[in-house]
């Protein structure tokens, strides 16, 4: 159970920083105007659209959590799905009545569904709910005169022969949707629930170029009880998953509390450095994942090849999966990806 909670909650580390929000209160008529509501919903969805960096980070994290999902595989379909619910447009503060939008969204297909960031979730009032299904997300949310929402990312396999076409489902006590995935390549809808509450959903397919990538794995070894420093060792693997050479390095914490790592991997002769990597690491936020403790966390940074094409790129991973908190030696795994353009083109 600890492993499941960790995997689910790692996807939302830092999520409560939220997406950008820009709203302007306006007067509300007794009878909702669909055109006006749809226009306001569009403004909110645009204002809260995740950045390219947020999207790419979530895609990379998803690949780390599920190595079977090679995000550069042509047999994968990647979707950006943004959802907003509540009073559209938001109004001046009004605490009555309160509407319960708690629920879930899922796809009955093979893949992984991840949360990029909550939109205007309020601590102590709104929260994400862990699930044990990789294609299901869940939440607790209540609104009055405001809006809540989620920016999400869905990765699905397209090489599965489905007897029935997979569907996207949105289920709450306020409103529900059932949409065939063939329509999610480019989809917009606004559902007016009553004279105060509405639901807006927008989805589009993301086209990503194939950037050379691979993986890394090994042991994250703590030298202190609190895990502030130590070493890591393992292998740097190619796109086919086969080791390219041994990997080794160290991690530490500076006096100011910043956490860093640095290392290198070899190729052929062990004395020949094939590349170097460096970056920062952090523990999983225990307020988001109480079961995780200080023994589990993530790392991200950059690498540079010292041989061949001398390519540069990004590296990202997680450590502490398996034994859990309190262990000295913990497994880690991650991915590396060569820098290349990653436009978020919308399918027309």
Q: How is the secondary structure organized here?
A:
Layout: H1 2-10, H2 34-47, H3 52-65, E1 76-86, E2 99-100, E3 103-107, E4 111-119, E5 127-129, E6 136-140, E7 142-143, E8 147-157, E9 167-172, E10 176-180, E11 186-192, E12 198-207, E13 213-222, E14 230-237, E15 243-253, E16 259-267, E17 269-283, E18 297-305, E19 312-319, E20 329-338, E21 345-346
Antiparallel strand pairs: 1-8, 1-12, 2-7, 3-6, 3-9, 4-8, 5-6, 9-10, 11-12, 12-21, 13-14, 13-20, 14-15, 15-16, 16-17, 17-18, 18-19, 19-20
Describe this structure in words.
With 348 residues, this protein is mainly beta. It folds into two domains: 206 residues, no CATH class; 126 residues, Lipocalin, CATH 2.40.128. 11% of the residues lie in helices and 45% in strands. The chain has three helices and 21 strands. The strands form four sheets. The protein has an eight-stranded antiparallel beta barrel with strand order 13-14-15-16-17-18-19-20. Strand 5 and strand 6 form a beta hairpin. The protein is elongated, with a radius of gyration of 22 Å.
Please tell me the overall pLDDT: 81
User: Radius of gyration, rounded?
Assistant: 22 Å
Please count the beta strands (DSSP E, at least 2 residues each).
21
**Topology as a string of helices (H) and strands (E):** HHHEEEEEEEEEEEEEEEEEEEEE
Numbering strands along the chain, what is their spatial order in the largest sheet? 13-14-15-16-17-18-19-20
């Amino acid at each position: 159970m600890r492993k499941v909670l960790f995997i689910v909650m790692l996807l939302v580390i830092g999520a409560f920083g939220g997406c950008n929000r820009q709203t302007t209160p306006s007067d509300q008529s007794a009878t909702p105007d669909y055109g006006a509501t749809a226009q306001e919903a569009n403004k909110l969805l645009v204002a809260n659209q995740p950045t390219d960096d947020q999207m790419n980070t979530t895609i990379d994290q998803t690949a780390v959590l599920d190595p079977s999902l090679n995000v550069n595989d042509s047999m994968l379909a990647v979707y950006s799905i943004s959802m907003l619910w509540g009073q559209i447009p938001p109004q001046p503060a009004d605490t009555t009545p309160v509407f319960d939008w708690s629920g879930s969204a899922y796809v009955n297909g093979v893949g992984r569904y991840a949360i990029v960031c909550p939109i205007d979730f309020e601590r102590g009032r709104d929260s994400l709910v862990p699930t044990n299904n990789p294609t299901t997300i869940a939440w607790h949310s209540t609104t009055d005169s405001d809006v809540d929402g989620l920016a999400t990312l869905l990765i699905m396999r397209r090489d599965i022969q489905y007897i029935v076409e997979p569907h996207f489902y949105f289920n709450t006590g306020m409103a529900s949707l059932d949409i065939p995935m063939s329509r999610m390549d480019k989809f917009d809808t606004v559902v007016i629930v009553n004279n105060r509450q509405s639901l807006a959903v927008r989805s589009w397919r993301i086209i990503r170029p194939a950037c050379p990538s691979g993986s890394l794995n090994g042991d994250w070894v703590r030298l202190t009880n609190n895990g502030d420093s130590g070493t890591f060792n393992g292998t740097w693997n190619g796109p086919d998953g086969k080791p390219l050479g041994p990997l080794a390095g160290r991690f530490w914490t500076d006096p100011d509390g910043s956490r860093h790592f640095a290392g290198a991997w070899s190729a052929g002769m062990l004395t020949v450095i094939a590349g170097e990597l460096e970056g920062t690491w952090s523990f999983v936020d225990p307020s988001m994942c109480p079961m995780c403790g200080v023994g589990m966390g993530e790392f991200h940074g950059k690498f540079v090849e010292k041989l061949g094409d001398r390519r540069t790129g990004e590296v990202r991973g997680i450590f502490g999966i398996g034994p859990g908190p309190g262990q000295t030696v913990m497994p880690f795994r991650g991915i590396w990806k060569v820098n290349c353009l990653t436009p978020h083109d919308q399918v027309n």
